[in-house]
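Appendix B, Record 12. Input sequence as logged:
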Amino acid sequence: MKDGLTVIEQFRKAVLNHKKNNTVASTEKIFNKSASTIYRWHNQYAEEKTLAPKKRGGAHNVKIKAEEKGFFKELLDVKNDLTLKELQLAYYEKYNKRIGLSTISDELKRQGITRKKKFL
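Logged structural output:
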């Protein structure tokens, strides 16, 4: 990291430095980036004083409320070989809410509960 910048930020800085003394068209050709990308980076730097890529992703709209999070652990403590489908059904019976199998799987991962059996 040069000057505390990532490789991506260094590249973007080089593109913008080139654009200062040259046309956008020549900058496009040299760096193989579109004019809209160059302008977007320029505006981003002018407004935010950073060339770092925007953050993507993040938290989803989690359907399982905080007070419901311990439900799966309690069930699995009693019977540790329940399938995701069985967990889904039990959740529906208790909370009258439908959630997907991937939601249950994600929640189990967040809680550090794996589906692998441990042998002594």
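The first helix runs from residue 7 to 21.
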